[in-house]
Structures
1.
Amino acid sequence: HTVRRQSIKRGEPRQMPSLPHTAESTVREEHFSSRRKQLEDYLTNILKMPMYRNYHGTMEFIGVSQLSFIHDLGPKGIEGFIMKRSGGHRIPGLNCCGQGRMCYRWSKRWLVVKDSFLMYMKPDSGAISFVLLVDKEFNIKIGQKETETKYGLQIDNLSRSLILKCNSYRHAQWWRQGIDEFIRKHGKDFLTEHRFGSYAAVQENTLAKCLVSWVVEYKDELLYLQATSAVPFIYLYFLRLSPEIFMKRPVVEGNRWRLDCILKRKA
């Protein structure tokens, strides 16, 4: 970033407004609106310049990431840096050895809140480290008594108890309130159990139903193809699913019901 900034021609004109120089406490009430407009113009012009818009410090200040405005991922909740404690998985083999505090590790991650899941990413590469789905056991606790961590925040679901460490009790409350209000508003369908024990509500007129109708309509042709084929095969459709998603939850049999393991077993 420093090299790119220095490479800009010095004589190149820039339409950058100046920031207010007077202290906040000395500004008269009648000047508040003009001061607010100055700050708004400054930030707007910063975001129009790709070099500053993509700078990690700018993104952190505004609270956005590479995944903030991808429509297919659902509405945007709060985002920000957190300290995440290792362990807490209810999937056998993913926890670190032992249960003592000396075994835990703390890692800095960027936490993203969406309508049906939470995920955290590595700040240096942007790689997604873990996705925590919203389900009927989704719950948030704060306080040292519940989390065994000063200014701790605990987020539970059927597969994990995620422990986060905040800078203060107020910071922990801000995260808890922001996550809870957003999930209750946009992800309430995932918080209760539905027909046949499903974690998701019944959806009308979906692509999956169209595919099922197509299979029913052409079932005779499909059965003929399968009967005349020398090697049995499975009909796969392009679904927006991670190959590592667990099709049966909670996870109680290791990786047996993970999607990729099911397909491998059937093949």
Note: The chain has a mean pLDDT of 80.
2.
Amino acid sequence: IGEWTPPGARFPLEMAQDADVGSNSLLTYQLTSNPSFSLVMKESPDGSNQPELVLETALDREKQSSFELVLTAVDAGDPVRSGTIKIRVNVTDLNDNPPVFGQDRYRVRLREDAAPGSRVLNISASDADSGSNARINYGFGKMPAKVLQKFMMDAESGMITLKEGLDFEDTRSYTLLVEAKDGGGLMAQCKVVVEVLDVNDNAPEITVLSLSSPVPEDAPVGTVVALLNVHDPDSGENGQVSCELSGEAPLSIVASPGGSYKVLVLAKALDREEAAFHELVLRASDGGDPARTGTARIRVTVLDANDNAPVFSQAEYTVRVPEDVPVGSVLVTVTATDADEGQNGNVKYS
């Protein structure tokens, strides 16, 4: 009997046979008590009674898939004699139950360096029906092409695997719409949120936004020489960057409040006569394990200031001159030098 059969439906049962005659062959029927079924008698054209099974309540195969009944036929003789037959009612399934997921939403964490083919999640749904009505196929619902190209699903097992590599810096999470459809066409949906975990796969990047070069050698301490942007697209400690200058350059690093900008300022007075330029290497390291490093080279030229007076080669020259030396004779040549350059270093005598 199908579980879709409405109450009141009748099902003819086998009639009993009694070889006696008269009252000894008059038969009445009895059915074991069951709230789902009752017994009625239908009179046949020949005057005999045909037992029929009547469905009293709607059936639900998922609650009870079969019933065991006993039909008894009793004659009217003395002594009474009876015969019995067992009736087994099997309830035929109706696709009245959709697939059911264990959760409406699943959450998975996946490292961004997971290789294509990696397992993401094995998802499953159950169906209380039987046979083809309980056979479930899995698939993705309507989603953006960007998501579909990253993941694939096995229609039979419900296994979701990675189809294409991930990039935390591009997309930090994906929401997958998963569908389970049974053989009768009923469907259920759930969502799978894939959270991409950051891996320290990016080195810090240093960009020189502005550079003041040459710098006058008489520039005061604290003068801004360069403005830099330091960026690491990773997250957490992988994206936390510390900077240092190599060498003995007369500069220091000052961090902006946001931390992404670095300012190079004069830490001590310059002296072009001591060093006409400074080659700097700025090294930025992130907090990953192992750490990744980025570098930038900066050349700062020192502009001369007239901070040096001419200096004679000797503080005093002594010359012995004969009194008859002709007018116009060279008595002595004095020399002076100036450590400055250009016009500041050109020396005139008087």
Note: Residues 145-148 form the longest helix (4 residues).
3.
Amino acid sequence: YPSEFLMQKITEDNQIPVHLHVSVSLKYVAGLKGRALVEFFHSNIAEVENEELRHLMWSSVLFYKTPNVEVMACVLLSTKAIYFLLDDSFIYADEHQSDFWNKENSDCENSSFHLSCCFVLKLNDLQSVNVGLFDQYFRISGHSADHIVTCLTRDSYNTHTFIQQLMAVLSLLARTPSPEPVDKDFYSEFGSKNTGKMENYELIHSSRVKFIYPNEEEIGDLAFLVAEKMDGLTNLPSLNILLYVLAFQVNHFEGSAQNTSSLQPKTLLLTSSDLFLFDEDYVSYPLPEFAKEPPKRDKYQLADGRRIRDLDRVLMGYQTYPQALTFVFDDVQNQDLMQNLTLDHFGE
């Protein structure tokens, strides 16, 4: 340890997404290669001497206690824990975090010494992993609100790779076997299934960690929600969700010293007749077992919706991934122009 293949793989994965800005300390980490990266892990991050670094991934993350603050992180998976090396800006992004993060080192910010916050989730504390729709994100859950974090990979390949690596590492854990299941009688067995709602697909790993995947009903619920937002303008059976993707909406700020742009996380839905942008809560749903009440906001909140028939043109950027698309719509909104002309000219 480490093998040449592992060092090459970790070096290749150690790249910050070009569209996201990070602090100086994380840029330093992204500049490390091969053996230097492994040595950095052992001397600065690893908590146990004999743990091995198995996987590295850059991803945006959300914490259950701060569902509105998305922050860039370097996610490191070892044989003992998952480490989230966080951007410095996160500590100051929300005034309610003083109890969640220790700020005693804030006096370092003006010096040449750069400090990163590291959130640690030990594999022994891991209880479940919820995979999002179309593998666009996944949520890792421990035993309390402090131990729930969502990785917004926005990439099915990265999600799949991390889940595979996590399963492999969990297989190394020596956990006590589960007690023998108690035989249920007919009525309790029948009653538990007669809830009227299909449970999500669960895979219980040998380490007793649950891997939960969405079922077809989630897409059905989403289609129903979209139809509701369209005020019944379409019939539900013909409404098909063609595309679900986590994206960013670009907001330009003109008039400043240099024209800057901010990226607002959005969920983009494409149906056969409309294009929708939703603000989605990725970290609060499904509700964890300890939750006493539902979150303050719904899972999906409609931010914008346009008819495909009003789409005038689509402009495509020539840069490499991630691709920028500009949708240009006609000014006339929700009006059938021909029908209105007929009424104006020939009707009373």
Note: Residues 75 and 84 are 5 Å apart (CA to CA).
4.
Amino acid sequence: ALELTDFKNALEQFQNLVEKIIIQKTRESSGLYTKDDDGIDYDKFYTTTRALFGSAVKDQNIQAFFRKIMNNLDEKPEWLEIFGCFKGESDGMPSQKKEKESMILLVSEKQQITHSVVKRKDVIKGIVKVPLLHYTVTASQKGVLTVFTKKRKSFLSYSLYFHQDTAWINGCDFLPNLKYVVAVTESSVILWDYKTKEVKSDGFVLKPMKNSLLCVCTVTMADDLAKDTFLMGDDKGYVYLLTITSDDFIMKQSKAEKESQFKVLDSEAFDIPKRKLHDDWVGKIKYFSALKRFGSCSTDSTNSLVLDDIKRLEDHLPIKEFSVPQGVNAFTYCGKAKVIVTGG
């Protein structure tokens, strides 16, 4: 309790220090500031910050924080940036007997993958871990799908550049039984056979989809090597349930499109139950096998979070929904604590 009180006092003083710097710099730029003994330069900022937080902050983080303030007065950095967010391998952490840990953030070691999977002006829209296979799947907005496989402490990757008109990829997941990567775009569903080693990758495109698909997640149920089920959310508040079998790849495909090995699957040939659960975009969708429930969230203030059985997408019985002012942007479930946590 004493440490917490001390930290709150130190944080308040630090925030006052930052405000004084911003006021000083603003007055300097307008020509109204005259230098005096109360002026704050980097040396004074460094000394004060070090006195407030001690060894919990590092020199490079203090420098970076000060530089951010100087370069953009309108958007000051968040206070927790002064503590940094990552601990490099070189920092060394001798077991659990470190003399004084940072009382603010304890972050585990990270391993950086230096392989570049996106080009300029492209962003990662989805990243999924597949623990049983030691895979990591990523999808970029402009169509780069990548599967990282961890072997002998290094990462191998299989990448696909999927270009379909100007449709952006909005999310991805992994189908564990069929061993495909699934991704959703504004108008279609991509099913990529990442195991194909040919120059032109193999896969399927399910289209057309009437609304813009924004997110996707796999429903992990009883093992059935012949099929996988996944959920999707769109920009009209609908949640879809789709089951794909290995037979679908044979029975329902049409000819491959030009300059692509991807074969088209007609969406009209599939039974795709859907239900409108939100009055705004479906931001995230997840399936929790421990609860045997799916969750979907939206910025809709009335139906902000839905948590129920996937059967509700087919029988249209009342659903369990929760209201949060201004909606929910993210959520997750902690099995150990048995709580659902949301972020708005």
Note: The longest strand covers residues 144-151.
